[in-house]
Structure formats: C-alpha cells, structure tokens
C-alpha cells in the first residue's frame, strides 16, 4: 500500500499572517511530503508493514525506528494542518469541550498559557498536544521528535508543531511568538469534534 500526502484543508496562503505562504509551502511540500516519500521507500524493505494503516504502523513499529518516525511524522503533520483554520474560529461557550476546559484548567486562557509553557519547555524538536485520556481527563503534554500520544492510548484533540522547521522562516528562533500566533488560528470545530469522539 502506497501512502499518499493528504491534501491541505486550505490554500497555502490561507494562514497568513500566522504563517506565510512560503513557510506553509516549504513545510508541506518539503517536510510533510518528504516523510511520505521516505516512508514508502522504507516500506519496500519491510514487507510486514506494507498493508497496515498509518495508525497501526505508529503503534506496531519499534519506537524511534525509521518506519515509526516517518509514519508518525506524516500523521502528526496531517493533524497539525487540520488543527488550524483561516476562519475566525472560536470555542463555543457552554459546549461540552468548553465546560471540560474550564473545569480542568480554570479558563481557556489558562489552558493556552499552560499549552505555551509546555511548548516552550519542550527541549529541541517535538510536538505539543491537548489530549483526552481513556478516563476522559484532559491533559497538555509534549512529545520529542516524532513521538506520538496515540501510542499511549490517548485521544489527540489539538497539536502544535514545535520543530524549528515549523516556525523558523516566519519567526526565526521566536518560538513564543509562534505559539502566541498559533492560538489565533486554532480550528475549534476540529478540536471539539475530536473531543466528542468516543
Ligand atoms: Fe513540521
């Protein structure tokens, strides 16, 4: 089974001013597409992994093996693009997710502050996540390099790419500025739908 690069859910210029068209183009065409190409190439030498899904690869391939890294990077990037929108998306007040965020973190701003702190404290490349654990508890965490929370049976709700390649073109080394701008482009409908999944 050949893995394909999923389409972006918007045009490459849609996220401006958060991310420039050039930044999205390089991130999507070079990095995201590169992981797809590398996974397909690596799978030619691993027939046992050729007919399983990306999620199954992430859960079954040895951690930090190249197959795992490429599969997880593809999945994380696709989830990242869908975590963003060019629309003026807001968390619907009174929604099940909004109530859960308030009961867990205090306010939405408190949740985003914690998300930014976790993003700033992630040393080196990685991802910041809002997840729901099997008991329904919300948690903000980070993973290094290509690591994924779905391997730990957690339901991802929102993700932010904090690899330097995600922000260097527009923000140079200002990860804090990148995270602050990221919060203005969150696709809350996507987050809410993920939260409502069983
Ligand atoms: Fe990335």
What would you say this structure looks like, in words?
The chain is mainly α and 198 residues long. It is built from 8 helices and 3 strands. Strands 2-1-3 form a 3-stranded antiparallel sheet, sandwiched between helices. A hairpin with a 5-residue loop joins strand 1 and strand 2 (138-144). Helix 1 packs antiparallel against helix 3, helix 2 (54-60) crosses helix 3 (66-82) and helix 5 (108-121) packs antiparallel against helix 7. The two termini are 28 Å apart. The model has no long low-confidence stretch (mean pLDDT 96). Fe (ii) ion is lined by residues 27, 31, 77, 161, 163, 165-166.
Write the layout of secondary structure elements.
Elements: H1 21-43, H2 54-60, H3 66-82, H4 96-105, H5 108-121, E1 126-132, E2 138-144, E3 155-161, H6 164-171, H7 175-183, H8 188-196
Antiparallel strand pairs: 1-2, 1-3
This protein binds fe (ii) ion.
Residues 27, 31, 77, 161, 163, 165-166 line the site of fe (ii) ion (FE2).
Helix content: 40-55%
Could you give the order of the helices and strands? HHHHHEEEHHH
Overall 3D form = globular
Radius of gyration: 17 Å
Strand order of the largest sheet: 2-1-3
Query: Major beta sheet, specifics?
Result: 3 strands, antiparallel
Q: Classify the beta-strand content into a percent band.
A: 5-15%
Which residues sit in consecutive blocks of at least 5 with pLDDT less than 50? none
Count up the helices.
Answer: 8
List the bound ligands: fe (ii) ion
Average of pLDDT: 96
Structural category is mainly alpha
The end-to-end distance, rounded to whole angstroms, is 28 Å
Q: What's the number of extended β-strand segments?
A: 3
């Amino acid at each position: 089974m050949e893995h394909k690069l999923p389409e972006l859910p918007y045009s490459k210029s849609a996220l401006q001013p958060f991310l420039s068209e050039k930044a999205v183009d390089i991130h999507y065409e070079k990095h995201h597409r590169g992981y797809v190409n590398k996974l397909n190439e690596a799978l030619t030498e691993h027939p046992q992994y050729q007919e399983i899904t990306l999620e199954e690869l992430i859960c079954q391939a040895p951690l930090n093996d190249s197959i795992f890294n490429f599969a997880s990077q593809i999945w994380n990037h696709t989830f990242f693009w869908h975590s963003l929108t060019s629309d003026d998306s807001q968390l619907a007040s009174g929604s099940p997710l909004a109530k859960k965020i308030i009961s867990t973190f205090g306010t939405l701003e408190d949740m985003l502050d914690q998300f930014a702190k976790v993003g700033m404290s992630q040393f080196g490349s990685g991802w910041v996540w809002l997840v729901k654990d099997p008991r329904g508890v919300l948690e903000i965490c980070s993973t290094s390099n290509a690591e994924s929370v779905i391997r730990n049976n957690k339901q991802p709700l929102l993700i932010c790419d904090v690899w330097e390649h995600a922000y260097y073109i527009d923000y140079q080394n200002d990860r804090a500025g990148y995270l602050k701008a990221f919060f203005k482009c969150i696709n809350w409908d996507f987050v809410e739908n993920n939260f409502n999944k069983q």
